[in-house]
Write a structure and sequence with these properties.
Strand content: 5-15%
Radius of gyration: 18 Å
Largest sheet: 3 strands, antiparallel
Length: 147
């Protein structure tokens, strides 16, 4: 008898959540609230884990750096446009939340970066270190647009 495993939902990019194991598409917008027994058996998942290569150049470092360099190159090519302080405050509150008023975005980490793209988000006036300040960048979930 195999152990039942729950689906592992991630944003699909189309206002839905998709299980990374079986591919089931959920119409629930909040992936953390999507609950379903996965079609993939737990012994298959265990075998997949054993066969997975060790992680190298993953989003924890190399991929984030490549995305940051691409964003800075785009920003520089467009003439280094920046957002004003009011826009920065508004977008930062969308990500970070405001005490007593709104919860932080579920993709905003305690370290001050986006869990989806890995970019640092702050109120800093130094644009190339702050995705919110660069007017050529946008939220990967569409919570704030590029200008």
């Amino acid at each position: 008898m195999t152990k039942q495993v729950y689906c592992k939902f991630e944003p699909d990019g189309s206002n839905a959540c998709r299980c990374t194991r079986c591919g089931f598409l959920s119409d629930v917008l909040d992936c953390q609230k999507s609950v379903r027994i996965c079609d993939v058996q737990s012994d298959i998942i265990q075998n997949e884990r054993k066969q997975m290569p060790k992680r190298f150049c993953t989003d924890s470092g190399w991929e984030k750096s490549k995305r940051w360099l691409k964003a800075v190159a785009k920003w520089t090519a467009d003439g280094c446009p920046v957002r004003n302080d009011l826009e920065i405050e508004t977008y930062y509150e969308i990500c970070h939340g405001t005490e007593g008023e709104s919860e932080p975005c579920r993709f905003f980490s305690k370290e001050g970066s986006c869990k989806l793209c890995g970019c640092k988000l702050s109120k800093s006036r130094i644009a190339f270190l702050n995705k919110i300040r660069m007017a050529t960048e946008s939220c990967p979930k569409g919570y704030w647009p590029y200008d």
